[in-house]
From TrEMBL:
Signal sequence region: 1-26
Gene Ontology MF term list: dipeptidyl-peptidase activity; serine-type exopeptidase activity
Name the record gives this protein: Lysosomal Pro-X carboxypeptidase
Family, as annotated: Belongs to the peptidase S28 family.
InterPro entries for the chain: AB_hydrolase_fold, Peptidase_S28, Ser_carbopepase_S28_SKS
Pfam family, one: Peptidase_S28
Biological processes, Gene Ontology terms: proteolysis
Amino acid sequence: MRIMATRFISLLFSLLFLLYSGISFAKPTPSFPSSIIRPEKISLSTPTEPYQEKFFTQVLDHYTFRPQSYKTFQQRYLISEKYWGGAEKNAPIFLYTGNEGDIDWFAQNTGFIVDIAPHFKALLVFIEHRFYGKSMPFGGNKDVAYSNSSTLGYLTSTQALADYATLIIDLKKNLSAADSPVVVFGGSYGGMLAAWFRLKYPHVAIGALASSSPILNFENITSPYSFNNIITQDFRGESEDCYRVIKRSWQEIEDTASKPGGLDLLRNNYISASSLHNWLYTAWVYTAMTDYPTPSNFLSPMPAYPVKEMCKAIDDPKTGNNTFTKLYGAASVYYNYSGTATCFDLDDDSDPHGLGGWSWQACTEMIMPTSGNNEDSIFTASKWNYDDRAASCEAYFGVEPRPSWITTEFGGHDIKRVLKRFGSNIIFFNGLRDPWSGGGVLENISSSIVAIVAKQGAHHVDLRFATSEDPKWLQDVRKREVNIIAKWLSEYYEDLDPAY
């Protein structure tokens, strides 16, 4: 039996993170209108919004004044005025700070702001991150843009944030909406950008919802063992036997490969030991990240609580004692829940969502230690080794990482003390089943920089479209987020017009 389906993305250097006309705002109240979050029937298909695709002529380099800095590129953004109350009403603008991929993929999977837009009469804008999707500098030629460190050097978080600020200021000017307040939203890396945008451009955005944003996963702030420890807890919490099967499988793969004819067996069945390692590792990690309480298709079509379903497959007595059969059944929950795959290509490094630029970011400023494994880990025991990352980056890109740059630029150390009197109006959401939550803000920093933590939550689950099957804890998270955003807007309008 030759195993076959598409790997979501190669694991090079680092994981992908890795989620209303005639406006009149009343004072925020503890109650939450049930009509804001629109219940949908459970479906693996993702609801879509009819966005207009537009392009903005963006400056390549915001930070120098040499002639070449005035080179430009076409930056894509998606916009919907369907619910907007209009500039004359100073109706708000909800802006999604794009992640490391095609912006339409994130727009299709970020239903929260669509669900609440009718209530707030908000204009919806999704901006694509430079060097991803169609927002490709150097004439839109990806091969040229990705050719070397001289071109890729313009792919940074600070340049991206400046893009967002420049675009939204120009958009507001063109819409004659100078007094329309902007609230930024983002999940994962986009959530990090949303939080940093609020801190760096408070004159552009009045607040930020930063979902599953590991802004503390840098430079000796978060343990390099945290990421994989949470994955271990996710699976071990479902079944001790499930945990043990996965834990011992790595050695069984190696043992099989070392036996006479073992490599041939692996090649016939799984292509190679390393391919099998990566194939399984991807399944366990991404399933833990997206252990949602309802069916989803964000990374791959999966059932509700897919970690539980994986462990059911491993614990199924029908599989007997064959570890490889158990692993295949469990991994199929991630790779073939839809039942449409007839084979899995373990060596397929295709990039369907345009995520390729992340390798560069993971080699320059986004140095987030996540690969440490202690003896109890579901993965083979190992230590985080910065030197290995640095050597790989030097060999691949000819660059030396700057592991302390993010904390230099945006902070992170002693964040509660630093931001308590400096920052405001940020919501940090984290679900504790998400391995990235270990690098998230899990405690309130001040009365207006709030941490919302959900014990059963997964990666930016709060930003997903609401469904009729959402558990109460998730409904409560979203209600709280909406009430906080309503408070920000109410305060803004009071400042804008004291008679409000």
